Amino acid sequence: MKKKKKIIITTIIVLALTALWGGKTYLSSKNTFKTVDTAEVVKTTLIQSVSVSGNIKALESEEISLPSGQKITKVLVEEGQEVKKGQLLVKLDTYDLETQLKKGKISLEMSKRNLEKLKAENSAERKSLENAVTQAELALKSAASKYEDAKVKHEQTKKLYEAGFVSKSDYDNSQSSLKDLETNFLTAEIALDNAKNALADFDNRIYEQEKQIEMSSTELASIEKKIAESNIKANINGKIIKLDAKEGQYPAEGSNIIIHDQSKYILELKVSQYDSVSMKLGMKANIKLSGLDKIYEGHVTKIAETAIVETSTNSSSKETKLLVEVTMDNADEQIRAGYEADAEIILVEKENSLAVSFDAVKTDEQGNKYIFVVEDNIAKKRIVETGLQTDLEIEIISGLKEGEKYILNPPAGLMDGETVMTTGGI
């Protein structure tokens, strides 16, 4: 009886050890499985974008400089006030300008009268000067004709003298007569020049008087313009964001009034050459401002024709950038010119696209792109064709179906057909 009991106990111990060893073997085998994270292939909207930071500015603005030499007599608006185009903002003192204008008008009138008097009183003088020019021209013509005839006759006399047909006395008389006529000719030329100069001097007096009247008229127009501009008006609709004007004071140098049209804002961006080549007018943009939860909408409205080269503040490296403007489509009262904003410019947007995580796609030695799918805890290599890539996802054109389970970031050495343990167990 004791022997039988001993055999039973021994058998139980052996079975227990066998079970324990088998369990350890199973656990050991199970622990060799690679643990993987998985996800399902889904349809989604893929967006390829570029993110750039920039500053907001009003699409249209006006800066009015205040003259430091004119006292401000009236300020009709306040900083922050909405104004309309043509609305009177500030009045400047015009007393000195109006005094200058009155004096200038009197001076101009006197100059005009002097001109008329000069023309009337000297008409006879001018006619006399014109006659003098005419007479001098006739005298010169006569002297020139006589001088030319004398030169011809003297040449003939010279030949006859050399041939012995005329006396030396006749030859000397001919030569003396030629010199006298030459002197008369030169004198007539001088007389004509003097007559012309006298006429020109007379005309210059009238010309100078006419120019003086022209200058006076220009000065008066400038004064009238300054008087008109002393009533400073808005040239655009908008809000006054700066007003350097106080009644009874002279504006300091650089004082101005700035108006922003707040119906439209733009975001000025400096985009890298790499990103700018993909941008086109009309592309949508999502705009985010620090401190505001709202996402504003916009679109690209301007792309510069010429790039700029900037030097990094932290190094001597240079970077080529392109200026891009994004117009905000739904700006509200929270927007301020000068605010910094981040813009996500949508380069490509595809709806209902099959997509997987970027890290799930690998490339084999043959250059094929593949993904491991999981079927009954077996990792299976699947060749795929990819499309649009974003920072986080890749479009799958062929090779996968919606709802299939795939491995996220497959572990190194994972083989096709290998048993895997997904997160949470087999």
TrEMBL record:
GO cellular component, one term: cell envelope
InterPro entries: BSH_YknX-like (IPR058639), UPF0194_transport (IPR050465), YknX-like_C (IPR058637)
Organism of this sequence: Lutispora thermophila DSM 19022
Entry coiled-coil feature ranges: 101-146, 178-212
Protein's cellular compartments: Cell envelope
Transmembrane segments: none
Domain YknX-like barrel-sandwich hybrid: 71-253
Molecular function GO terms recorded: efflux transmembrane transporter activity
Protein name: Biotin-lipoyl like
Domain YknX-like C-terminal permuted SH3-like: 358-420
Main location: other
Gene3D superfamilies membership: 2.40.30.170, 2.40.420.20, 2.40.50.100, Helix hairpin bin (1.10.287.470)
Record keywords: Coiled coil
Superkingdom per UniProt: Bacteria
